[in-house]
Amino acid sequence: MKENNPVLWNTHQQFMAKALMLAEEAAINGEIPVGAIVVKDNIIIGKGYNQVERLKDATVHAEMIAMSAASESLQNKYLKGCTLYVTLEPCSMCSGALVWSKLDRVVFGATDAKAGGCGSIFNICENNRLKHKI
């Protein structure tokens, strides 16, 4: 979905810039450089960057960490009214978690032709067979 509102576009750019800073931190730490933030009402309520190598855990992607932090912040398993900004298209694991969390929107900086779960290989986030669509 393209959004032509210049104010909204500016907001997307500002939040993506913060996600990019987290991606840089991931790269400095020897991780695949992906950063993510969760925003509700223009306030960052969760953030994360890839920590797969550091924690030796294939599930600690930037999105998963950011969503966990946001859920903790809201004290709710659902992230209704929230937007995830992530530097790389979420994989199928993360896309599934986005759907389960009932997130409103995902904004990503680059498609992932090898593992994308939001349109490149799979489109889990808009799958009509699931209970929630992003």
Notable characteristics:
4 helices; 134 residues; alpha+beta; four-stranded mixed sheet
Could you outline the blueprint of secondary structure elements for this entry?
Blueprint: H1 6-28, E1 35-40, E2 43-49, H2 52-55, H3 62-74, E3 82-86, H4 92-100, E4 105-108
Parallel strand pairs: 3-4
Antiparallel strand pairs: 1-2, 1-3
Describe it for me?
This protein has helices spanning 6-28, 52-55, 62-74, 92-100; strands spanning 35-40, 43-49, 82-86, 105-108. It has 4 helices and 4 strands. The N and C termini lie close together (11 Å). The chain has 134 residues and is an alpha+beta fold. The protein is 37% helix and 16% strand.
Mean pLDDT: 93
- Helix content, binned percent: 25-40%
User: How are the strands of the biggest sheet laid out side by side?
Assistant: 2-1-3-4
Shape, per Cα inertia axes? globular
* Main sheet characteristics: 4 strands, mixed
Structural class: alpha+beta
**Poorly predicted ranges:** none
How much strand? 15-25%
